[in-house]
Model the fold of this input.
Amino acid sequence: MYFYQKLEEDLYRLGVNDRRTARFENMFPMPDGVSYNSYLIKDEKNVLFDTVDASFIKSFCDNLNHVLEGVDLDYLVITHMEPDHSSAISYVMEKYPNCKIIGNAKTFSFIDNFFGDDFKDKYVEVKNGEKMSIGKRELEFIFAPMVHWPEVMFVLTSAGELFSADAFGTFGSIEGHYTSTLIDFDGKFLDEARRYYINIVGKQGRSVINVLNKLSSRDIKKIFPLHGPSHVDADKIKTFIEKYKIWASFEKEEDGVLLAYSSMYGNTEQAVDILACELSNLGVKNIHIYDVSEYDYSYIISDAHKYSNFVYTAINYNTDLYPRMDAFLRELAGTGFQNRKVSVITNMSWGGRGEKIAEEILASSKLEKIGETLQIKSSLDEENVEKIEELAKAIADSMK
Ligand code: FEO
Done:
């Protein structure tokens, strides 16, 4: 049976929802699933933009066959070769043997690596900035390397439709509403779009800025990403592009404090809770506490990028940094985290090597230290509480 959504008179979304895969890239949890979007333009030439994960070949091909209504597929444009979008290529090519594959030199290198060279005679290589008419529309190929893989290219049509590969995508399956105009854009959508971007593309901020600069003078009327809803509203497109600029520049989105802690028996946790209360008493908004042993790192990392201030604990474990904090900080640093104000709490029961290791992990993150490191010895005492009050004041002052 088929299922598709008609986005315009001659433009269709043929993608699928994946609510069964637990973790995207076998790493990031997807409690609300994810959509793999594929789009078809029926013009003088019929052009398919990307495919879907191979687990959904049957549904995807039913959709494609139905919308094509017995006519041939002329082109398959590959904007991105990650297998969540490309692993159904061979099926499409077998079903539509006259179809040509549009990509760039790097795309074809990936196709050769994944599928062998069976489709070599179907390759149509395009260069950055090249244009191609498909009838009413002209397609322009805009290379966007490292957003998210090296071969990525966007396609901008003469009608102002941007096929943006992973960019402007999000976790979460499409729940009927296939445009961001119809959903809670500023709430859950933006949180999941941020978590997707920061964790998956985040480190490549410079590449994202480069392609946003290329597009800055272009009239983008609609955005069709490979995950999540389409964007068809001018204000929402403007807002989303502005968010991307902030994320790609590693700037804070809002003033706020993200406290990430590890605590074996609750003593360090108590210090974090007292600090949060003191911050609240001082009028600080947006305080969020995460236990790194409980939460998936992708959520904590997303919020660390969102807010101005970051507090972490550096307790010891077997004379090293507590392993879960060690792993979390390495993953955070790996997303290009930088330009934030940072404060530190240690528990010195077994010495202070944990803090040194944490500082080494974050050495390239260009962080501004706020307040002195709060040093607990096993459990809190009155002097610690006074120091927490001082630290809270220093953090609150740093936001003024
Ligand atoms: Fe949705 Fe980078 O693949």
Residues 185-201 form the longest helix (17 residues). The two ends are 58 Å apart (CA to CA). Residues 80, 82, 84-85, 148, 166, 226-227 surround MU-OXO-diiron (CB under 6 Å).
